Amino acid sequence: MNLMQITIDVPDEFAERLQRDGNDLSRKALEALVIEAYRTEVITQYQVGQILGLRSRFAVDAFLKKSKVYLHYDEADLEDDRQTLEQLRQQGKLKI
User: Fold this and answer.
1) What is the CA radius of gyration of the chain?
2) What pTM did the predictor assign?
3) Does an H or E element contain 15, and which?
4) Is 52 in contact with 69 (CB distance < 8 Å)?
5) Would you list the domain boundaries of the chain?
6) Are 49 and 17 contacting, i.e. CB atoms less than 8 angstroms apart?
7) Distance CA 23, CA 6 (A)
8) Which pLDDT tens digit goes with each residue over 39-62?
9) Please, what's the b/e burial string for 18-29 (b: 16 or more CB within 10 A of its CB; e: otherwise)?
């Protein structure tokens, strides 16, 4: 993956406050950018993991949940899941 370097000018006082807890500002900025890109559907859940180096879907889910960003799941997804469930019931593969 090719990398682009971005420079951000931040007032020293603000940067000092952010670093007080030992935060890596570069990482925090990248995470904020990724969160917003996912929230606005510019990137996918898979791409979140790729960009941040998260090794599993579960790690991505945990990161998004911790960041108070939830998976994209709309009415069409719900309807697809409902139809799949009904098909499994009819085939006898699911008993509820």
Assistant:
1) 19
2) 0.71
3) helix 12-19
4) no
5) 12-70
6) no
7) 18
8) 999 999 999 999 999 999 899 999
9) eeeeeeeeeeee
